[in-house]
Specification:
This protein has 143 residues and is mainly α. The chain has 8 helices and 2 strands, in the order αααββααααα. The protein starts with a helix and ends in a 5-residue tail after the last helix.
Length: 143
């Protein structure tokens, strides 16, 4: 459903959120190790999220990536929009360019309902939800 980059971005945000909840700032290397992602790839993802104001960073000793209270309130949908764009929220379930309300594909109406559910779930689920006690101990960020 999501691109590999988007999957890593969501996992990275959750990892940083968990560390931020413990008042820790984390390096690219730590995040990459924490989510089992290549370091260079993780750096590009974190830079993109930071550039789009979802993630904060500080340079120098004690620096690193972190989430403030506002960042913890970010919905997963925002990460998806930044990394994968709006296609999952607006596109055809079969990937057809000409699919529309006027010219629907065979799964248009069913997929429209599924898409509404996905949008709702991603908008309601905040990054900070994964820092709660029960989530931290049951969540595995590595594949």
């Amino acid at each position: 459903m999501f691109s590999k980059t988007c999957e890593y971005a969501i996992r990275a945000m959750i990892y940083v959120a968990q560390q931020s909840k413990l008042d820790r700032r984390v390096s690219v290397k730590e995040v990459a190790e924490g989510i089992a992602s290549p370091e260079y790839f993780t750096a590009k993802i974190l830079q993109n999220l930071s550039r789009n104001n979802l993630l904060s960073s500080a340079k120098g000793p004690g620096g690193g990536f972190f989430l403030d209270k506002q960042g913890l309130k970010a919905p997963l949908a925002e990460i998806v929009r930044i990394i994968d764009g709006d296609d999952i929220f607006t596109g055809c379930g079969l990937g057809l360019a000409q699919c529309s309300e006027i010219q629907p594909c065979p799964i248009h109406h069913e997929f429209k309902q599924i898409r509404k559910g996905i949008i709702s779930m991603l908008e309601k689920t905040k990054v900070g939800a994964f820092t709660e006690e029960n989530s931290v101990h049951t969540l595995f960020l590595k594949r």
